[in-house]
Amino acid sequence: MTVVYSYAKCGTCRKALRWLEDGGVDVKVVPIVESPPQKAELKRLWKRSGLPIRRFFNTSGQSYRQGGFKDRLSTMSDDEALEALAADGKLIKRPLVVSEQAVLVGFREPDYEEAFGATS
């Protein structure tokens, strides 16, 4: 089962879910704003992803702008960054896709093809 932390009004999330469903991937959708992953889970996912922590931040969102993360993020510890992400699901770049194969942040079709195989 692939878990997709998603936001219903997010076009990128809908696009990713459509891609996964068209590919026959069994998904469980978790509303990211109401049920963001807790700090320990975020840390585990971040480590598994191999991505820099800043890639987990939704840099185009209101929470990011209002929280001043553009200026703060470079001076925050990983622990502080994880704490901020866990406290506000709108800060997390979405969709956040968790499967046995990979942890994906956002939607880039080549990344999905690599993790799940082509859907054609």
Order of helices and strands: EHEHHHHEEH
Structural class label: alpha+beta
Roughly what percent helix?
40-55%
Query: What is the topology, as strand order, of the major beta sheet?
Result: 2-1-3-4
Q: For the record, give the distance between the C-alpha atoms at the N and C termini, rounded to a whole number.
A: 21 Å
Given as residue ranges, the uncertain stretches (5+ residues, pLDDT < 50) are none
Major sheet: size, sense and barrel closure? 4 strands, mixed
Give the CA-based shape: globular
Q: How large, in whole angstroms, is the Cα Rg?
A: 14 Å
Mean pLDDT: 95
Oligomer: single chain
Task: Please count the beta strands (DSSP E, at least 2 residues each).
Answer: 4
Description:
The protein is an alpha+beta fold and 120 residues long. Helix 2 packs across helix 5. The two termini are 21 Å apart.
Task: For this entry, give a set of tags.
120 residues; alpha+beta; four-stranded mixed β-sheet; 42% helix; globular
Question: Topology of this structure?
Answer:
Elements: E1 2-6, H1 11-22, E2 27-31, H2 39-49, H3 62-66, H4 69-72, H5 78-87, E3 96-98, E4 103-105, H6 109-116
Parallel strand pairs: 1-2
Antiparallel strand pairs: 1-3, 3-4
Helix pairs in contact: 2-5
